[in-house]
Amino acid sequence: MAALEFDLQHTDPLSKARAGRMITDHGEILTPIFMPVGTVGSVKAVTQQQLQTEVNAQIILGNTYHLYLRPGLEILEAAGAA
């Protein structure tokens, strides 16, 4: 089973704002974060280069059922994502 750890690093005493980090099997993600959503396996209207350089996406949310349908389980397993 995949591990997920969350470490709360800071809270603002004047609001409910907080900052932390999630540690997953695939790396560390600093929060708060903008998380693009990949619909049917891709983020629309943004190139992969823009996701890295302009959006600085640390994580992309993908629907596992859509990813199962396309690109398919074999490709996901080969990429180490399944």
Description:
This protein is of the alpha+beta class. The chain has two domains: 1-33, no CATH class; 35-82, no CATH class. The protein has two helices and five strands; from the N terminus they run ββββαβα. It has helices spanning 48-53, 64-79, and strands spanning 4-11, 18-24, 27-31, 37-38, 61-62. The strands form two sheets. A three-stranded antiparallel beta sheet has the order 1-2-3, with no helix packed on it. A two-stranded parallel ribbon has the order 4-5. The longest helix has 16 residues, at 64-79. The chain is globular and about 45 Å long. The protein starts with a strand and ends with a helix.
List keywords for this structure.
3-stranded antiparallel beta sheet; alpha+beta; 82 residues; two-stranded parallel sheet; 2 domains
In short:
This protein is an alpha+beta fold and 82 residues long.
Question: Mind sketching the topology for me?
Answer:
Blueprint: E1 4-11, E2 18-24, E3 27-31, E4 37-38, H1 48-53, E5 61-62, H2 64-79
Parallel strand pairs: 4-5
Antiparallel strand pairs: 1-2, 2-3
Helical residues, percent:
25-40%
Low-pLDDT residue spans: none
Total number of helices: 2
Apparent shape: globular
**What is the terminal-to-terminal distance?**
11 Å
Structural classification:
alpha+beta
Main β-sheet, in a few words? 3 strands, antiparallel
Question: What is the N-to-C order of secondary-structure elements (H for helix, E for strand)?
Answer: EEEEHEH
Radius of gyration: 15 Å
% residues in beta strands: 25-35%
Mean pLDDT: 89
Task: Please indicate the count of domains.
Answer: 2
In total, the number of strands is 5
The order of strands across the largest sheet is: 1-2-3
